[in-house]
Amino acid sequence: MIQTLLHLSLVVHIIAISMVVGITIANFVAFKQFWKLYAVNREQGLSAFRAISNFQFIGMIGLLLLILSGTTILYVVEWTFLSLLWFKIKLSIILLIFVNGFTMGRIQTVKLQAFLSEEKTSSESQHDIGKIKRNMQIFHLTQLTLFVIIIIVSVFRFG
Fold this sequence. Notes:
This protein is about 90% helix and about 0% strand. Helix 1 packs antiparallel against helix 2, helix 1 runs antiparallel to helix 4 and helix 3 runs antiparallel to helix 4.
């Protein structure tokens, strides 16, 4: 029974990490498309932004599954991973993903929402949108880099 729970949790964990990474990639690509649409037609850009916002819910489900399956795996192995260096590094990177998501990612999304709700197109606003665009790209690339590091650390399990 315990072995089955471990295997089931591992399957859910792999699906969840795939889901979260996939949503991050989809978000990155969708935002690139959003900027192109917004530059040509503001209304199409706004529609694309509303559609992109739906990704956040799916990503949160993936994160929830990831945490639940990871906790279940830890429980099944009697928390032994907590003493291993690779796992401590993995947990630290997971913390960085959350911090990056709830700070830089959230802040830039709020700034973008505020910008999109304005009607102004002044040069100052254009400068602001350029900063938001650059920061969103940095955010997505940082998240993807952190996910790749987690996968590498989990596969090689050093120390």
